[in-house]
Prior knowledge:
The complex is a heterodimer of chains A (216) and B (339). Chain A contains eight helices and five strands; from the N terminus they run αααββαβββαααα. Chain A is of the alpha+beta class. In chain A, strands 2-1-5-3-4 form a five-stranded mixed β-sheet, covered by helices on one side. In chain A, a hairpin with a 2-residue loop joins strand 3 and strand 4. Chain B has 339 residues and is α+β, with helices and mostly antiparallel strands. Chain B has 13 helices and twelve strands. In chain B, a hairpin with a 3-residue loop joins strand 4 (59-61) and strand 5 (65-69). In chain B, helix 11 packs antiparallel against helix 12 (297-307). The mean pLDDT of chain B is 97. The chains are: A alpha+beta (216), B alpha+beta (339). Chain A binds chain B through residues 49-50, 52-55, 57, 73-75, 77, 96-98, 101, 104, 107, 110-113, 116-118, 120-121, 123, 169, 172-173, 176, 178, 186-192, and chain B through 1-6, 8, 28, 31-32, 35-36, 38-40, 46, 48, 50, 52, 73, 75, 98-102, 104-105, 136-137, 246-248.
Amino acid sequence: xxxxxxxxxxxxxxxxxxxxxxxxxxxxxxxxxxxxxxxxxxxxxxxxxxxxxxxxxxxxxxxxxxxxxxxxxxxxxxxxxxxxxxxxxxxxxxxxxxxxxxxxxxxxxxxxxxxxxxxxxxxxxxxxxxxxxxxxxxxxxxxxxxxxxxxxxxxxxxxxxxxxxxxxxxxxxxxxxxxxxxxxxxxxxxxxxxxxxxxxxxxxxxxxxxxxxxxx
Amino acid sequence: xxxxxxxxxxxxxxxxxxxxxxxxxxxxxxxxxxxxxxxxxxxxxxxxxxxxxxxxxxxxxxxxxxxxxxxxxxxxxxxxxxxxxxxxxxxxxxxxxxxxxxxxxxxxxxxxxxxxxxxxxxxxxxxxxxxxxxxxxxxxxxxxxxxxxxxxxxxxxxxxxxxxxxxxxxxxxxxxxxxxxxxxxxxxxxxxxxxxxxxxxxxxxxxxxxxxxxxxxxxxxxxxxxxxxxxxxxxxxxxxxxxxxxxxxxxxxxxxxxxxxxxxxxxxxxxxxxxxxxxxxxxxxxxxxxxxxxxxxxxxxxxxxxxxxxxxxxxxxxxxxxxxxxxxxxxxxxxxxxx
Lengths: 216, 339
């Protein structure tokens, strides 16, 4: 009987401490996730610097031909802006540390890793993602880009997760003039990792587009 | 990422005054290293000063050589016709580094400022003397993880064989800097106390007792440009990078060579190694030995032996004691045949 009492006490204690933990951690999560946290912070008298850091700043950037007027926190990367705020989920988050290339987009015509690009630094720039590739500067179309067609033709993927990054990188590789041989393509595509190992078919797709001479 | 304040500047003067106002403030250039460090909480900044709009990206001829703006992208420098023709060692070194995407983002100044890739430095649960204290948030001023050097007696396959200290055996990861130190570059900086020029070989430093300091910049100083003096090495240059895979990996050992070669006699030599020290490692004794000598394998072997004096392994990186001299001989051999 006494033992049961003890057990119940323990259970109740565990239960209440779990409740406190959940309450505390959800409060922390709310602080971390709420976008207008700057105001909340000021309301609760939190240090002014914290409020400043959560402040949203204006950003004007053209994405796939459309001018966007946004307000974002300074710490938002271009990758998170595209995926989480603009719903452009074609650009993939792989490693999030600039090591895999899944997040490759074109920034003012140059291929870059969106995961290491702070969105605020793209002020006044043109961004093209896989969604806008086929339409070029005129915005997305229902047509496929020649590189997208070549990836399908040559089976340049298996699971497909790295593919948007591979295709954005491949188009840039040809535009830069670094796709003159399979060796050169392998070197200049080394920033795009494919864990399925579709590399030989990716190189074949790029060679095909390059030799086809179509404008990319 | 932890939250931080952000400000954008358009003149070097505004950049310098923004940086000197507060501690915990960092310049943000290409971001390829700094954003990664912030994500990993190795750096916890109060504020970033975005210097991407500074007009410092030009590459131009000068009376004495070439001036490369600090904000010039690594890819723009590697593809520049003047660089390719007169300083091919620099183009080769740049193209051996990172990936095409990262080279489109990374700047010359940022490349010089990049931190070591030592895995203990990057993991805040592991001991490291190089990490600075936390610079923002409730833990401001507290050590960012345990102190000590995890790499000494730990996993040190990638680490230094020259110039290490009991506090730190990390290496500088740059390829570009190996070419710049070999080519006698100078660095133009501006700061709260005015402008000055730093010889490239004095820009980075050995760890000593203060491994948190990678370089000799003073607080608030901004890199404006890098000057390269004209030379006679363009026909016989080579950058050899030995790494775990064919592309897109940091160097185990790298060697940058520039030779002024006339009728198989070395008039003048420039040699530097990467992946072996806390700073780009210039091989001045080997250079002096090679001067006036015939370009033969026997000479190269002797030069390499001179270069390796004082080298010390830490266990897992002992293989570098053999790999490094062999790489020197290989790079010299290739450089003699490139004309």
